[in-house]
Design a protein that fits this description.
Blueprint (H helix, E strand, L loop, with lengths): L5 E6 L27 H11 L4 E6 L3 H10 L7 E6 L5 H10 L9 E5 L2 E4 L2 H10 L4 E6 L7 E4 L5 E5 L8 E8 L17 H7 L3 E5 L5 E4 L3 H22 L1
Parallel strand pairs: 1-2, 1-4, 2-3, 6-10
Antiparallel strand pairs: 4-9, 5-11, 6-9, 7-8
């Protein structure tokens, strides 16, 4: 199979829960502490490492801040980037369709990712999974940790143990996708594809779910706490890598 080499990044969110960081910049332009690089910089580096040569970034809130950063960083970016701006909110599905119209190879499959996701896993493995199932769309599935401690009891109500931030028993949409070329025409021009296109494809068994591999890193950056924890996790990973090399 031929792996996708183009992607859409949805980067128009206001990030209200990340204020005051997002008072003067869109959510994907918030920097991961200690890296000096905004979220979207990490995303573009990951996409390029996975074989993507062209990305379309869909902008909205404070679009000029993101466009200025991309222009200033153009010489150092590892792939070609085009931006589109929604003049009025189109919804997630409409935004995807609008951005996909600017993909350089509309006749070929493409990736998409939400602009507030920071993750690392093999997109090529996900694309192969998508191809093997002849799916129109495949979404990555994550199992995040519950933000609260859990209490384990026996059948008589005796407390047996306390479990700090256990993995969720449910898989969630991780905000990373592989789409067939034909999928673009199935998207609504306005509205949310998760309420329209996805349920229809699921009924037709043309929607696949790719569980993230064991140990794959995934985090949605929604709050200041997420930023702090992401920075700590990155520092821990770098320290572990340095120790392994010594």
């Amino acid at each position: 199979m031929t792996f996708p080499t183009q992607a859409v990044v949805l980067a128009g969110g206001q990030g209200l829960r990340l204020r005051p960081y997002t008072d003067d910049r869109p959510k994907p332009m918030v920097e991961i502490p200690g890296t000096g690089v905004p979220i979207i910089g990490h995303q573009l580096a990951w996409l390029a490492a996975e074989g993507v040569t062209d990305a379309v970034v869909s902008c909205g809130h404070l679009a000029e801040v993101l466009q200025d950063w991309l222009a200033d960083s153009a010489d150092g970016l590892p792939l070609r980037v085009t931006t589109v701006v929604e003049e009025e909110p189109l919804g997630r599905g409409g935004g995807l369709r609008y951005a996909a119209a600017s993909l350089p190879r509309p006749e070929l499959p493409w990736y998409a990712t939400n602009g507030d996701v920071w993750t690392r896993f093999s997109l090529r493995d996900m694309a192969a999974f998508h191809d093997e199932r002849a799916a129109e769309a495949t979404l990555a599935l994550a199992r995040p940790r519950v933000p609260w401690g859990a209490v384990e009891t026996d059948e008589f109500g005796h407390v047996l143990d306390f479990i700090e931030a256990p993995p969720s028993p449910f898989l969630i949409n991780a905000g990373v996708y592989v789409f067939s070329a034909a999928f673009t025409e199935l998207l609504p021009e306005r509205g949310d594809h998760e309420r329209t296109t996805f349920p229809r494809l699921a009924r037709e068994r043309r929607l696949a779910g790719f569980p993230l591999p064991q140990g794959a890193y995934w985090r949605a950056i929604d709050t200041a706490k997420d930023l702090t924890e992401a920075a700590a996790e990155l520092a821990a990973a770098e320290a572990a890598g340095a120790a392994a090399r010594d």
